Amino acid sequence: MERGGLGFWGTTLAGVVSAIVAGVLTWLFGFWPPVWRWLSGAFETLWGWISYSVSVPLSILAAVAFLFFWLARRAFASTFSAEPPTAVSRVSPQPDPSLAPIELAILELLTRADGQWLEIERIASELHVSRLVTERALEQLFARGYLLDNHNVLHGTMFRLSPTGRDYALDRGLG
Question: Domain map of the chain by residue range?
């Protein structure tokens, strides 16, 4: 489910704490003046690069801006691990008695969500179960083809019903 690592807020907090610790240590050991001179020089150089005056046609600037936004949109676009079906299939799934109660509860919750993407934390909190239990149930439902996942940079992995899962949930009256 998760790829590991601290996540956005954990990384931000770690960066702030490490900057404060580095500042205190450099102050304690008398390294602050050389560090300050180096930082000032780096920012002056950066500002010199940013404020460098060049005459560029407006059409070139517009093309670069378009390329930048297009690349940013592609980089942060949602990626789906399941391809949408090429042909509409109306074969209703057979009832699956091997689903655990937590899996049925997740299918019911995602059916009530009406196609919205839900995060693991929200699913766990709505069902009042731990994240580990929720992850295991989501993995099993995903392996059966009942779920689609969306790996999002800001929100983490999110889930919703696949067409097969939707049909199964509606046939069982989970909605």
Answer: 1-52, 90-171
| CB contact at 8 A, 157 and 120 | yes
Per-residue CA distances from 117 to 54, 78, 85, 107 (Å): 46, 11, 19, 13
Can you give the pLDDT of all 175 residues of the chain as single tens digits?
A: 455 567 888 889 999 999 999 888 777 777 667 777 888 999 999 888 888 777 778 788 888 889 988 888 877 765 444 444 444 444 444 546 678 899 999 999 999 988 888 999 999 999 999 999 999 999 999 999 999 988 877 778 889 999 998 888 888 887 6
CATH number assigned to the domain with residue range 90-171, chosen from the 4 options 1.20.1090.10, 2.40.10.120, 3.40.640.10, 1.10.10.10? 1.10.10.10
d(CA 80, CA 151) in angstroms, rounded, equals: 7
Q: Which two tokens stand for residue 155?
A: 């929100």
How far is residue 170's CA from residue 92's CA, in Å, rounded to a whole number?
10
Q: Strand runs (DSSP E) across the chain, as ranges?
A: 79-80, 118-119, 147-152, 156-161
| CA-based nearest residue to 124, from 157, 151, 162, 83 | 157
Q: What is the pTM of this model?
A: 0.46
Are the C-beta atoms of residues 22 and 14 closer than 8 Å to each other? Answer: no
